[in-house]
Design brief:
heterodimer, A: Rossmann fold, Rossmann fold, 2 domains, 7-stranded mixed β-sheet, 12 helices, 14 strands, 20% strand, B: Rossmann fold, 6-stranded parallel β-sheet, two-stranded antiparallel ribbon, 44% helix, 11% strand, Pyrv_DH_E1_asu_subgrp-y (chain B), EC 1.2.4.1 (chain B), PDH_E1_Alpha_Subunit (chain B), thiamine pyrophosphate (chain B)
């Protein structure tokens, strides 16, 4: 184990996988000479050369489509979209093509590709650079979706993503890039898809989060412990496949659940998770499931207003208190 | 002065061109009949009239070259070597279809033939073609990628992104524009600021030419030359094949936006009888031999329909298969 940032853990995963398999290549806007807008691809060009690490034109849909074609042609591309907001320009290739070709071609092709995309709000980047669009992808069958919360998972999930034969949308949180944690040095350290991380065990209430929301949930749980409330914090890790069993079992045991989502509340993934808990654990619930969500507004710039829009530790603490107080 | 056919190709090859065009036409006309009977459902875009483009292009390529297309893809797949039985079964939605009945008319695919798919979002195939070319170049393969598309797709952003990218990275892509003058019902002059489509590549420094898409030999020669050029230089090239679809955009389109005078002019340029006449005029064959080929193609397509009819439907369990590896 060594302590490193989420960013460096991602960088290490890329380097290890590129050393391990010459078919792994990466490209995107400013990933080579500039070493990535968030410096996740630092040092790759120097080590692997410009065939395997390439700057692309600002053409997001083609970045996604070239990854599809390269994967069909026998490579294992890791494409970078500068942020998830720009993934909207690539939705034709991601949704209409990447998620469909295996099925509509009768299973005759597979796409071992990863599309990385930094996501999330909280840096006063205003409405067009602060979105949390994970639900957009989660809605669509045909792709895997990973969203690490910790540096260790950043490394282990990205390595799994690169070795997976399915297309993977890999979402990274911009605010987590500088977060630090212990990361296994073992180059065979992999975090499997479809297995939640029970970050903290507890008995009174289950908090389900992902990405930065899992990190905030863990902080909220520490606060709540002081009040004598024991929280079980579950990080989904992958939104597809979704490890339903782990959070359902937990919610059935604690009888109370709070789902924390950074995306908009309306038709967000939190509604889906909450619904699954209701459908499967209804007779075990001691209180209605509660959601803590991003506000249903375009993100404002002003930091005073922006704070209102993103789930906070205080907001999660409050929601848990309400769930503890409520009963049927 | 027009080259004599025998200086270019063997008699067997020339008759092969004829047979492939006839097989394509017979297949498409049979599809129309099966659609009317309700055996083929969904969208059905037929290729009748454009056969010289698919046949001439495919003949000008190597077997290892990749081919991608749009949704008017039956002839391109069959000419490439796809089994007409399995293509027809696909259109019928049967389990024996080339994509197990999951893709249908617009999504034919056969990796064994390097036929890398029909794509039904206009211009969706461009970036994928560029990606395949990138893989081929990285792997230092000899192959090139041929990307078929219609005139309408040149007004999509994908077209511009892909052309630019393929030149910036210098990738071996052969762009074949099948200009049949209509994007559904919108004539090219009403959709493209520059109706001389091949001239639109100068903004990406990609050389281009226009070829008579009703002349299988002209297409073949242009593609053969272009493919050799691309293989040698590892750079993209663009061919505009001027052609015409004899039917509407799809079976749902009666094509009333085209005058009968216009249609008659193009009918007189039908690539099949014109090529037949040339074969006879140059003493390569006679009408009786061509009639035999025609009969063979008709029988081949009848067999495909029979195969499709007799094939089983997919099991219900197939609906959950082939989503993930």
């Amino acid at each position: 184990m060594s302590e490193m940032t989420y960013r460096d853990a991602l960088n290490l995963a890329l380097k290890e996988e590129m050393r391990r398999d010459p078919r792994v290549i990466t490209f995107g806007e400013d990933v080579a000479l500039y070493e990535g807008s968030f410096k996740v691809t630092r040092g790759l060009l120097a080590e692997f050369g410009e065939d395997r690490v390439r700057d692309s034109p600002i053409s997001e849909n083609t970045i996604a489509g070239v990854a599809i074609g390269a994967a069909m042609g026998g490579m294992r591309p890791v494409a970078e979209l500068m942020t998830i907001n720009f993934a909207l320009l690539a939705m034709d290739q991601l949704i209409n093509h990447m998620a469909k070709v295996r099925y509509m071609f009768g299973g005759q092709v597979f796409l071992p590709m990863v599309v990385r995309m930094p996501s999330g709000g909280g840096s006063q980047l205003a409405a067009q650079h602060s979105q949390s669009l994970e639900t957009y992808f989660m809605h669509c069958p045909g792709m895997r979706i990973a969203y690490p919360a910790t540096p260790a998972d950043a490394k282990g999930l990205l390595k799994t993503a690169i070795r997976d034969d399915n297309p993977v949308v890999f979402i990274e949180h911009e605010i987590l890039y500088n977060s630090k944690g212990e990361v296994p040095e073992d180059p065979e350290f992999l975090v499997p898809f479809g297995v939640c991380n029970v970050m903290r065990e507890g008995t009174d209430v289950t908090i389900v989060g992902y990405g930065r929301m899992a990190v905030l949930s863990l902080m909220a749980a520490a606060e709540l412990e002081k009040e004598g409330i024991s929280c079980e914090v579950i990080d989904l890790r992958t939104l597809n496949p979704l490890d339903e069993a782990t959070f359902l079992k937990s919610a059935a045991r604690t009888g109370r659940a709070v789902v924390v989502e950074e995306c908009w509340r309306t038709a967000g993934l939190g509604a889906d998770i909450a619904c699954r808990i209701f459908e499967n654990c209804f007779d075990r619930l001691l209180a209605p499931v509660k959601r803590v969500s991003g506000l249903d507004v375009p993100m404002p710039y002003s930091r005073k207003l922006e704070k209102l829009c993103i789930p906070s530790v205080a907001g999660i603490v409050e929601a848990v208190r309400e769930v503890m107080a409520a009963s049927y | 002065m027009e080259s004599k056919l025998r200086e270019l190709l063997s008699d067997a090859e020339l008759l092969g061109f004829y047979e492939q065009m006839v097989l394509s036409r017979e297949f498409e006309e049979s599809c129309a009949e099966q659609y009317t009977k309700g055996h083929i459902t969904g969208f059905l875009h037929l290729y009748s009239g454009q056969e010289a483009v698919a046949v001439g292009t495919t003949a000008g390529l190597q077997k290892e070259d990749y081919i991608l297309s749009a949704y008017r893809d039956h002839a391109q797949a069959i000419v490439r070597g796809a089994d007409p039985n399995r293509v027809m079964a696909e259109l019928f939605g049967k389990a024996t279809g080339i994509c197990k009945g999951k893709g249908g008319s617009m999504h034919l695919f056969d990796p064994k033939l390097n036929f890398m798919g029909g794509y039904a979002i206009v211009a969706g195939q461009f970036p994928i073609a560029v990606g395949l070319a990138f893989a081929a170049k990285l792997k230092q393969e000899e192959r090139i990628v041929t990307c078929f598309f219609g005139d309408g797709s040149m007004n999509q952003g994908n077209f511009h992104e892909a052309l630019n990218w393929s030149r910036v990275w210098d990738l071996p892509v052969l762009y074949i524009c099948e200009n049949n003058f209509y994007g559904i019902g919108t004539v090219v002059q009403r959709a493209s600021a520059l109706p001389a489509l091949h001239r639109r590549t100068c903004g990406y420094d990609i050389p281009s030419e226009k070829v008579d898409g009703m002349d299988v030999i002209a297409v073949y020669e242009a593609v053969k030359r272009a493919a050799a050029w691309i293989r040698e230089r590892q750079r993209p090239y663009f061919i505009e094949a001027v052609t015409y679809r004899f039917r509407g955009h799809s079976m749902a389109d009666p094509a009333t936006y085209r005058s009968s005078a216009e249609q008659e002019i193009w009918r007189s340029r039908d690539p099949i009888p014109n090529f037949a006449k040339r074969l006879i005029d140059e003493g390569i064959t006679d009408q009786a031999a061509l009639d035999e080929i025609d009969a063979r193609c008709t029988a081949r397509v009848e067999e495909a329909v029979r195969f499709a009819e007799e094939s089983p439907w997919p099991e219900d369990s197939a609906v959950w298969e082939d989503i993930y590896v």
